[in-house]
């Protein structure tokens, strides 16, 4: 991995990500990020989308900007 930028931590414990990095990663204001501790440091990554009803990650569709899996949609249709 290569260093993209060096940033200081502010008085509230925040760091600023560069515009170029946010654009490259397609991260928008309000997006959630996973922070994972590794031997090398901290890894930032986009969370894997999951169904808002069951937490599954297979065969997702979007309804009102929320991920819902096809199995849950079928279960709702049979209620």
TrEMBL record:
It comes from the Bacteria. Gene3D superfamilies: 2.10.260.10. One of its GO terms (molecular function) is DNA binding. This is Transcriptional pleiotropic regulator of transition state genes.
């Amino acid at each position: 991995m290569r260093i993209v930028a060096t940033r200081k931590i502010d008085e509230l414990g925040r760091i600023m990500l560069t515009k170029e990095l946010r654009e490259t990663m397609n991260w928008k204001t309000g997006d959630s990020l996973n922070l994972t501790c590794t031997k090398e440091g901290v890894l930032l990554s986009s969370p894997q989308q999951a169904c808002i009803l069951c937490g599954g990650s297979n065969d997702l569709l979007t309804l009102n900007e929320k991920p819902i899996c096809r199995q849950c949609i079928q279960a709702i249709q049979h209620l």
